[in-house]
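Hi both,

Apologies for the delay on this - the queue was longer than expected. I finally got the zinc ion-bound model through. Below you'll find the protein sequence and the ligand SMILES exactly as submitted, and right after that the structure tokens for the full complex including the ligand.
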Amino acid sequence: MRLLIANGYVVDPSQGQNSGRNVLIEDGRVAGLLNYGDGIPEGVEVFDAAGMIVAPGFIDMHVHLREPGQEYKETIASGVAAAVAGGWTSVCAMPNTQPINDSSAVTRFIIEQANRAGLANVFPIGSITKGSEGAELAEMGEMKDAGIVAVSDDGRPVPSAGMMRRAMEYARGFGLTVIDHCEDKSLAKGGVMHEGRMSLMLGLKGMPAAAEDTDAVRDCLLAELTGASVHLAHVSTRGAVEAVRQAKERNIRVTCEVAPHHWALLDSAVEGYDTNMKMSPPLRSQEHVDALIEGLRDSTIDCIATDHAPHHQDEKELEFDRAPFGITGLGTGIGLALDRLVHKGVISIERLVELCSVNPAKIMGLDGRGTLRKGAWGDVTILDPDCEWTFKSSESKSKSRNTPFDGWKMRGRAVATIVGGRVVYKS
Ligand SMILES: [Zn+2]
């Protein structure tokens, strides 16, 4: 099986590549970048990428696929279909399924289901503690042997610093990154949106930025103490970005990601009590959004991840206080980044590829991903940076429709997704 992605513009910061080249993929692996003048090798399937950007496959390192246990919201098959339609060749699956992914049996089940679906690569993330209950460490070694790439208690953050320290020491021994959802529940409990002027006006209980800041600072200190590799999920506050910036200046092994909704929307969007504006961490006020943009600009923020969190319509149709946290994101993440970051001059296209491919591969230790070097996996995201389009949630491959971006017009999108040398999506 040979595929030539011809006439495109290759943007691959992992090898300083930013030029018009053809990409040859053989038996699922990159066989090389060819000059246009080299012509077309015999017997290859040709994918014409004229006018397109050809990038190493995008990796969404933070998604909730809901299977096992909540297949009415999403299955692994529907989740990976949504992923490739959104331009993602790989996703990392958070462990808060039912049961929680705290054992090699659940890890293996997820990998088997993903293989059966045969679209995007799925890399499972194991839980930090058994049942994500914060009391007892999970069997990280067994799960690593089964295929996990990191550990996290996302959604039910490890409450005590002592337990987090032990988790980091344990994970470090297995070479696993610890991903934390920073939220001190003693500050945030009962909150349904960002605490501030808007929450007062709307009469909703707020979650203060300090709830995220406290845990972010704690995790940076513990990363320094333990030498573990620590990644902060979906940073949304000025304080969390600043904590990471200072930790990096001191060469502590801390990285972080941001979700598109946190820089694309403000807490004022909650005004109509639309439950598709409810997620955790919550939409923040302007000063925090400004800090996220600055973090994207100055490389404090390492990755863009969607935190794709499907919920059934019946659950989201409850009143704001009672509806579950979370929105879908696989279909909109790349379009929003092109439209709101690249075209607005916040980041360059090279930096976008770093944020969505090179850096997630590095942080998750995904060898042969996040690059189009010879010998790497033939995972490719093809972008049309100027395509004007409208996102329609009704056309999404996800089983759920809980998005705040329905009907949004964007400029730029992923138009094809290639996994292991196979075109798995083409718009
Ligand atoms: Zn989370």
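Main takeaway for now: The chain has two domains: 2-53+377-426, 58-364.

I'll put the files on the shared drive as well.

H.
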